[in-house]
# Entry
Amino acid sequence: GAGVSQSPSNKVTEKGKDVELRCDPISGHTALYWYRQSLGQGLEFLIYFQGNSAPDKSGLPSDRFSAERTGGSVSTLTIQRTQQEDSAVYLCASSLVDTPQHQPQHFGDGTRLSIL
Amino acid sequence: DAKTTQPNSMESNEEEPVHLPCNHSTISGTDYIHWYRQLPSQGPEYVIHGLTSNVNNRMASLAIAEDRKSSTLILHRATLRDAAVYYCILRETNRDNYGQNFVFGPGTRLSVLP
# Structure
């Protein structure tokens, strides 16, 4: 079956521009997560959705970052006025239910964002 | 927060077993132990998880110490496609902290030699 799909796979933009990253989770998965991974580093949590609401957005690094989810499915992560330190791979994951202790997360292959 | 420590890198020969260790001495009684791996240019992939008993699936086995302060991921016959970074993660039970409940450290970079 289809896995988590992210688009675009690569995005190059100039400093100061806004970018929008998209995540299509696995159908039926109610939990959705966004992470950021800098080169050679581990994952950095950004935000978690349960359905359309975000009970945990504690990882968003600044108010330039926002995310929404509609219809309990597609999610978009928006970065306004991009800075060079925003360059990273942005990963999306989904899981079947809201029991994080023992539900595996299924990851997309990420969007590689490069800020010039 | 519960933390894990893993060796930075390991090497194995193809078709030999690989034992990837993880220490988690501050684990709480209801924390699950999860393993993921990440191949180059891909997102992380779930491998296996467990609580107290050893676990087996088609990808690997997970051996959990009796005191739960350490665990070992076992790949029974390493292939070249198993070359990846392997992450050992504790999934904590604080339901007010969903996102921080999934902390990836640097992991172990496994190289498989033909």
